[in-house]
Amino acid sequence: MNRADKFLLAGILLVSLLSLMGMYGLFSSAVNTTQAIVVVRGAIIRRITLPVAGKSTFVVQGRVGAATVEIEGDRVRMREAHCSGQVCVNQGWVSHPGQTIVCIPGEILVRIEGAAAVDAITR
Amino acid sequence: MKRFGTHRVVFLALLIAMGTALHVVEALLPIPLPIPGVKLGLANIVTLLAIYLYGFRDGLTVALMRVLLGSLIGGVFLAPGFLLGICGAFFSTLVMAALLRYTRCFTVIGISMAGAVGHNLGQLLAASLLLQSSAIIFYLPVLILAGIPSGIFTGYLLKTLIEHNHKTGILNYYNS
Amino acid sequence: MNRRGPVLLIALLLLTALLASFLYGRRSREYTSDQFLMDTLISIKVYGSDPENLRMAVNAAYTEMHRIAELADSFPHPGTAAFAGSDVCRINQQAGIAPVPVNPDTLAMLQLAKKYCELSGGAFDVTIGPLMDLWGFGKIPHIPPPEEIRAALALVGNQDLLLDEIKQTAFLRRRGMKLDLGAIAKGYATEKALQSLKKSGIRKALIDAGGNIRVLGRNPHNSPWRIGIKDPRKSDGIVAILSLEDAAAVTSGDYYRFFEVDGKRYHHILDPRTGYPAVENMAVTAISSDAGIADVLSTVFFVLPAETALKTAAGLGEKVFIVTADHRILYSPSLAANIELLPGTAYRYEQGR
Question: What whole-number distance in Å separates Cα of residue A79 and Cα of residue A4?
Fold first, then answer.
């Protein structure tokens, strides 16, 4: 190998390194954070990175009145809702990416997003 | 150099035969990369020799013929791996022929290295078109790196052959 | 070294950069859209390279779902526009009076229902409307007195649903009969939406219609879609993961709509032969290449005893995953290659047969 060959080798290594860094930069937005996303009537109103320290609740205004979302550590539940079925409240806690809590009358959706073990859950 | 020299035709046929053999053997070697059909490109050695002796056009002929014959023998003709092979062979031939023709500074090792990297880039391009997926762009750095050792290896083999030729002039016989 | 070396190196660098940016430009984009429809949340996720095309494809798919939803809607009041648009409402209103001309899609749904009713020996019946009304699921659920159940049962009968393919009509022969497409419309609409996505050139998609899953192609990582099966008793758990390509997985469970009296659970999947909620299973997932068929089959297999369901599924060439009421888990042997079990202590996993 002469000087030019070594120069070429260094160049190839550099390109490889640069592309590796580029790759990391391009796709680092998809790192493994888990988020709870609260959607009311089609609009995202809150995005909470899990887990949270301690316990907190907040109130959202759905189509049929207020609903209380509770977050504790890495899990989320609908604590209280003014809908007739109470399906969302009865569902209990969710914490895994891909899981959702849905209040159909209130048009409220709580979705856990993140690097999921599954693409969807049949229920 | 005569355009249709018998020696040349015979030697091209020999190169194609050797390339095909290398291609088939290479297909049997397991490569720890998750892209189906991606190979190291050891068969590039005959392509480079063909370019070295006869230029780009014959180099391309040898490269494409060995992919064609190799995939027919391997039973993967027109399968995804075949397209990857064609694309890789084309890219590496292009890169090596350009370097041989327009530069004087590189040794065959450098040229072969560039050819191997070009081979892998060509395969990646074909794979991304084929899979309709960008996920494999993640393999870009790996594939560029993977070209270096195989390129140096094939380059070194060719260098030994050329040095041998300087002593014996055996290749000149086929170049007439 | 001559001057050409560096020039070529730069050219090589540029070529690589070009290739990288080309690949980046071709990267798969995701487009997700949620809509409340058919009493549930429909979520459509599609992948492709052109964002505008993705958006339009999803909108067209929702339009298709809305259309089917309207045909099968059983709640609007007579005289409203929604009532006139609902084939099911008009058929119910004309029960015992006259055949009603219906949309080809309505006819297709009813034919599907009729086919699987006969195949299952009546374990599923689309004319179950009077019983559903009696139990009050969707309104105020309660246990009806036995004599009322007997009276409602008399009005359930697949043989009295007459379909005329030539005249494109449907007719409930006796007055008081009532269709309930709850076990079929969502799946059928999901399949229609998926076919619409396909027509728009989409090759990777996931439709989640309130837990009815239909996937197209492979997932964004280019491997089969991984679909979890919910644990019927734990809100936060899954019991198995399916690997699916171009398939649908629909689950019927006793946990979705139910009430409890004296510790006994009464859920919304009624056995049309007894008039009471089916007691064999907690949850049943049907896997098929068609979401409409998977939807019907999940109800059919839910009502049948597990062993019968497995045998029926094998006969039909379809696949099923069952969590029985006595905490056993069984599944079709043909699923073995596509299933990952998550063994816990709550259920006894038995090899499918």
Answer: 69
